[in-house]
């Protein structure tokens, strides 16, 4: 079918199709809470700056260790992350073990710090 005929066909079929507008579609946003007929924006929960940093995954630890090497091969961040992901995929399970061990050690650190943080938080609430 010639290109011009295809374009005219799509224009006529588009006009016969029902239009979809944003107002007809139900929006479900995580930022709003529906109460009755009005939407009340939910505030984002503030993170306590004193809270311990989360545990790192084996992949994150691997990326931190190998980022400089990947920077030599790439120009921008997207390429660096692609190179690191490929490097991680090509590692054998045996080569991933040191990163898994470091991750487990970091997880125990996080749990220990979180337990201390929660205990400190509970004591401060008792004094108020």
UniProtKB/TrEMBL annotation:
Record keyword Signal present: no
Protein name: HMG-box
Gene Ontology CC terms, in alphabetical order: nucleus
Subcellular location: Nucleus
Native source species: Dacryopinax primogenitus (strain DJM 731)
Ranges of biased composition (kind: Low complexity): 1-27
Pfam families in UniProt: HMG_box
Keywords: DNA-binding, Nucleus
Domain spans labelled HMG box: 52-118
Disordered as annotated region, ranges: 1-61, 92-128
GO molecular function, one term: DNA binding
Coiled coil regions, renumbered to chain: none
